[in-house]
Amino acid sequence: MARPPPWVPLTVLGLVLLLGIATGVFWDDLQRNALDPKIPFQTYKPPRAPDYARSSSWYLLPTDPVHAPAGAVDVFFLSPTTYDGGEQWNAPIDDRRGGKLFQRVMAPNYAGPFVRVGRLYAPRYRQASLYSELTLREDAREARRFAYGDVLAAFRFYLRQDNQGRPFVLVGVEQGGFLADRLLREEVAPNPAVRGRLVAAYLVRTVIPAQDPPLPPCMRRAEAGCLAAWMSLRADEFERAQGLLDRTLVWGPQGELVGLNGRTPLCFNPLLGATTDAPAPARFNLGAVDATGLEWDARPAFLPRQVSAQCQGGLLRVSAPKSGEFRRRGSWADRKKVPGYNLFYADTEADARARVAALTARAQGAQP
Description:
Layout: H1 7-25, H2 27-34, E1 58-60, E2 74-78, H3 96-111, E3 119-123, H4 138-163, E4 168-173, H5 175-188, H6 192-195, E5 198-204, E6 226-230, E7 232-234, H7 241-247, E8 249-251, E9 257-259, E10 268-269, E11 274-275, E12 309-312, E13 315-318, H8 332-336, H9 345-366
Helix pairs in contact: 4-5
């Protein structure tokens, strides 16, 4: 059998290398395309709507959602993205994979800091898919606007049936923060009776234009009724900060989605408990946590002094954690979601408790 010419294996090797390079270059596009539902939103039939009178429409509820001890505080928590996409623009509320991701990762890391602050309410909602956050297509914008309808219904149900006039904390993470921003603008800020009971709103990993916040920014810890919003990036990710801001969509005055158009985001520093550009050294960091896999209400072990943080250009620049425990893991899609750890777990918990005390003191001072 004749041997192939010497150029043949070299050509094959070159083609393999070229294919590998091309795959690497276009990997994000390939993965993103796989999550595209490939159906116009206008002809899309969304999953069935949640019924918030049913406990199955909630991720988390207090054991007794109606009766609470005197002085109790509520926490209304809106989950970050757990649904990748592919088949749907918006997730079914009974999506099993997304539900497991919430219970295993999102709840212990991001709802966990508020377990000792108040009674947790976390609604399921037909969240926009991860794909809808990776494109500026009009279909994706429609999916994100659609998700707000469920959040609005859940919040109104909670206020009407469960809140009973108690103080409450509003927490939204990533997509949940994006939707909480509109809740604040339309349901909290214009309503004095509701706004007066707001301890604080925490919009984590959320971009809010500093020139148009729905509430006054939190400027010190002994303050209630204010907004703490931040988008954090590690120092080695800051080179892509401008690209992130260029792709960010925020709410316009009529509920439409618009770009930042050069506006600077609001930036709260959890290590300082204030909206400020002042630097915060790592010694201020009360405790980072990788709570993935723990029960959502378990008390995790804190690792203090892990990161320093400073707001720069409206984004929270965070140093590399000292422990190798805090690194991105999982699939390509998992790494596009919020991390499976919380570098400001103990800081957020302490901040929220201080604001509960501030609101309580203010209420007692107003009593005759």
